[in-house]
Write a structure and sequence with these properties.
The complex is a heterodimer.
Chain A (H helix, E strand, L loop, with lengths): L1 H5 L12 E12 L2 E13 L4 E5 L6 H9 L7 E10 L2 E2 L5 H10 L1 E4 L3 H4 L6 H13 L3 H14 L5 H4 L9 H13 L5 E5 L7 H18 L2 E6 L2 H7 L2 E6 L2 E7 H6 L4 H8 L39 H5 L5 E4 L2 E3 L4 H9 L1
Helix pairs in contact in A: 5-6, 5-8, 6-8, 8-9
Chain B lengths: L1 H28 L16 H10 L6 H13 L12 H36 L4 H15 L2 H15 L13 H31 L2 H8 L4 H38 L5 H10 L3 H29 L7
Helix pairs in contact in B: 1-11, 4-5, 4-7, 4-9, 5-7, 6-7, 6-9, 7-9, 8-9, 9-10, 9-11, 10-11
The chains are: A alpha/beta, B mainly alpha.
GO cellular component, one term (chain B): plasma membrane
Family (chain B): Belongs to the binding-protein-dependent transport system permease family.
Membrane topology (chain B): Multi-pass membrane protein
């Protein structure tokens, strides 16, 4: 498996990052029409780096992740363009057999709702052990020992006694830890966490995020953290990609974006976080509704909701303008936005 | 689970008492005198009828009759039939045949039904799916006696592929066609149930997780998907074992098999209630026990089920 991947891909050695999503397009062909879920998404993640992908439901953040994993339902999903390079070779061009071996070994994923994502009829230890048995050919007893070690590592109390318990016998936080244990079992280089804390209560959220950050530090993996919760990402992420209507509308190092966002949508998101010092005032909300993927607005997808809207926003799709260094904003008037946020 | 099993077993007692009482009471209330027609063309002499009545306790009140039945059953004494042949001899020879037939039918249901269901569920809308949907619809709309007489006439009488009727020893090869007939309805239903269950679970999150774990397609389907999809199917197959036994009445009648069903069939038409009562009571017991076993099995199949 490693031999195959270390060969340079057809044109894949340019960027050099561990995982590069390059101009990815994904659409869903439904009876109601073609839903353009992902429209030219580009991002990179390196070893030891945390990328937070931020966006509301339907922004294409999960679809991008599923395409990277190769677990997109096709049909109705269809990849209409772009590349996903992992260690330089394009995953989308690999035969299914090699693709499968990368799942779990190279790139692995934590899902949102661990209760439904874990198989209800098998013990959790068995499900973790399956990784070692199927990928590494480990014996049942060896694999089970490793499963207990992993459960210890994600700090499940009494791991040894709970290895034969079933998913429904655990609390939500513990279930998510098991999901994480399963995902990191084979020391993947990239871990994708798709809203890992959405289904959990706030104190448990913090614990899970702490655990993810710690595991990432220990093993130097690249982490893609998909979320719609700005509060979650501030502490752990290195950089942020904000998605809207299947596009990245802003990408920036995490502190730059928090300090002064360069896109009206990210600005709106930041302003809609409740703050103690603004207690008593009405909480800001971005007006309007998310775009209909079957019938995207012309020009900039955000224009119907944008306070900075001008005439050309309705007609011209804004490119991802370079703001500075690695920062980009897909807004015609990003300078104005950034000035407003700085003041 | 142990306590649950014991409680369920205790619940069987009142159910058995109620059903067997009804069977006893109703069978003897049926119109027509079972002894009147037993002497050929002439009416039976009163002496014979009275002797038979007193032998089988029909001159006593219903509750006393039922009490006799209970004590006889509990001591394993099934008595004699109207021809003075011990009922236990007749049934002892018949049970193995019926059980063999029922097991073959269950095997057909499980193998063919589940196999067809999985194939059609995995490729929904495909060629196999259409074939399965149409053929199960045909099977479901045909009553067992139609399927039975049709296959007997076609394979046995016209094509001579099999013997039209089964010999007294009922060897396995001669039971294949009767077992298929007996299984036909449940087989079709099993296929449909499996298909629905597969289609439903195919989009489940845990299947997506299994794919994301890098498992082979075969393992995702054969272990993760199938293990969950078969829970309702196995439950159905289990509960239907009881009805399979009673369904055997028609099938065994058609193919002249000397099983429990065949004996019951002839006993009903010959109005020999000394056989009808114990056999139907035993069928009730089989039905109740197989239901209990399914309920216990359900907890093994699905760990989320708790027995309080």
């Amino acid at each position: 498996m490693v031999e195959v991947l270390s060969e340079p891909g057809s044109r894949g050695t340019t960027g050099g990052a561990l995982l590069e999503v390059d101009n990815l397009h994904v659409e869903f062909r439904t009876r109601a029409g073609v839903a353009k879920a992902v429209n030219g998404v580009t991002y990179t993640v390196d070893a030891g780096e945390t990328l937070a992908v931020l966006g509301e439901s339907g922004s294409g953040k999960s679809v991008t992740a599923q395409t990277i994993m190769g677990i997109l339902d096709m049909p109705p999903g269809k990849i209409t363009g772009g590349e996903i390079r992992f260690r330089g070779s394009d995953l989308l061009k690999l035969p299914e057999d090699q693709r499968r071996k990368i799942r779990g070994e190279g790139i692995s994923m934590v899902f949102q709702d661990a209760l439904s994502a874990l198989n209800p009829v098998f013990p959790v230890g068995w499900q973790i052990a399956e990784m070692f048995r199927m990928h590494r050919g480990a014996s049942r007893s060896d694999a089970k020992k490793k499963a207990v070690e992993l459960m210890d590592r994600v700090r499940i109390p009494g791991a040894k006694d709970r290895v034969n318990d079933f998913p429904h016998q655990f609390s939500g936080g513990m279930r998510q830890r098991i999901m994480i244990a399963m995902a990191i079992a084979l020391d993947p280089e990239i871990l994708i966490a798709d809203e890992p804390t959405t289904a959990l209560d706030v104190t448990v959220q913090a614990q899970i995020m702490g655990l993810l950050a710690e595991l990432q530090r220990d093993s130097n993996m690249g982490l893609i953290l998909i979320t719609h919760d700005l509060g979650v990402v501030a502490d752990v992420a290195d950089k942020i990609a904000v998605m809207y209507g299947g596009r990245i509308v802003e990408n920036a190092p995490v502190h730059d974006l928090y300090r002064n966002p360069a896109h009206p949508y990210s600005k709106g998101l930041l302003e809609s976080i409740p703050r103690v010092d603004l207690k008593g005032q009405e909480l800001y909300a971005i007006k309007g509704t998310p775009p209909n993927l079957l019938d995207m607005p012309t020009g900039c997808a955000f224009h119907p909701r944008c306070p900075y809207k001008r005439d050309n926003c309705v007609t011209d799709v804004p490119p991802l303008n370079t703001v500075s260094g690695t920062r980009g904003s897909a807004c015609h008037y990003w300078r104005e936005v950034i000035d407003d946020s700085a003041s | 689970m142990g306590r649950y099993a014991i409680r369920r077993l205790l619940q069987l007692i009142p159910v058995l008492l109620g059903t067997t009482f009804l069977i006893n009471y109703m069978v003897w209330q049926l119109p027509g005198d079972p002894f009147a027609g037993r002497c050929g063309q002439r009416p039976c002499p009163d002496a014979y009828v009275n002797a038979m009545r007193s032998q089988f306790g029909l001159d006593q009140p219903v509750l006393i009759q039922y009490w006799h039945f209970l004590t006889n059953m509990l001591t394993g004494n099934l008595g004699v039939d109207f021809n003075q042949v011990p009922v236990s001899t007749t049934l002892g020879a018949a049970w193995p045949i019926t059980i063999r037939l029922a097991l073959m039918a269950v095997a057909f249901e499980a193998v063919i039904g589940i196999g067809a269901g999985v194939l059609s569920g995995l490729k929904r809308g495909g060629f196999t799916d259409n074939i399965v949907t149409i053929s199960t619809l045909i099977l479901l709309s045909l009553p067992v006696f139609v399927t039975g007489y049709l296959l007997q006439w076609m394979l046995g009488v016209q094509l001579h592929v099999v013997e039209p009727t089964v010999s007294p020893e009922a060897p396995i090869d001669e039971l294949i066609v009767p077992a298929l007939v007996l299984a036909s309805l449940n087989m079709a239903f099993t296929a449909r149930l499996t298909r629905t269950s597969i289609v439903e679970n195919l989009r489940a999150d845990y299947v997506r997780t299994a794919v994301a774990k890098g498992l082979t397609n075969r393992r995702v389907v054969g272990i993760h998907l199938l293990r969950n999809s078969l829970i309702p199917v196995l439950t159905f197959l289990g509960t239907e074992v009881g009805s399979l036994m009673s369904g055997a009445i028609i099938t065994e009648g058609i193919f002249n098999i000397n099983g429990i069903g065949g004996i019951l069939w002839r006993a009903i038409t010959g109005q020999d209630y000394t056989i009808v009562v114990p056999v139907t009571s035993l069928l009730v017991l089989v039905y109740l026990v197989s239901n209990l076993l399914v309920d216990l099995l359900y907890g093994v199949l699905d760990p989320r089920i708790r027995y309080e």
